[in-house]
Amino acid sequence: MPKPIRTSRRTWIAGWVLLCALGIAATAGLNATSAPDPRPPKPVSPECAQYIADIETKLAKAEQQDTDDGVLAFSRSKVGADDCSDEIHDHFAGDR
Fold it and tell me: pLDDT exceeding 70 applies to what percent of the chain?
């Protein structure tokens, strides 16, 4: 039975380092080439668009007044109004 070839620890470590470097390079290359397509904006109802514009106006007014309360609350008491929570979230989520 032939004797197995002994390899040193340095050879094993160098092999693992090379394998990890190749894996990281391949992952970076794949991430760079496969950028996700931007989603087209969803249509917003006119009522929700007006509500979002009102919110932006109130935010701008609060910034000009420079009130440093840290909390700005909005309420909507109209019965039968559209639920604009998804549209508001989508609109203002880009600011974070």
Answer: 73
